[in-house]
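Continuing the series of single-chain predictions for the mutant panel. This is the parent chain; the variants come on the following pages.
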Amino acid sequence: MEFVNGGELFFHLKKEGAFNEVRARFYCAQILLALQELHELDIIYRDLKPENVLIDSEGHIKLTDFGLSKDGLTEGKKTNSFVGTPEYLAPEIILNRGHDKAVDFWTLGALLYEMLAGIPPFHHPDRNELYKMIVTSKVKMN
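Parent structure:
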């Protein structure tokens, strides 16, 4: 992988607390394009979070850490692996109903929320309570 010297999105988000809408939209659009490319290659990323988004010297993003990705998931196919970072898991992963590329859009929404609010949409120190919140609660906009 090439050298990416702008740091992790996580670092910038923790340093600044949250981003303004213009900056969040810019990063979100770039991540969306990256996910689109992966999905066209039949790859689900499944681990989108601030720590896995790098920023280059020009302010553009690059995704890293494809360890939880799954390839070969063509249209109409699902997988049942329970993988991902707890705060960003889509309900269908938690419920073990099988999931497809749509889980990447759930995590993108969670990441966008975090970029704007400074915290993930669902958070709780107890993992079981966190999962319950993700599956049953509505997102509260601050």
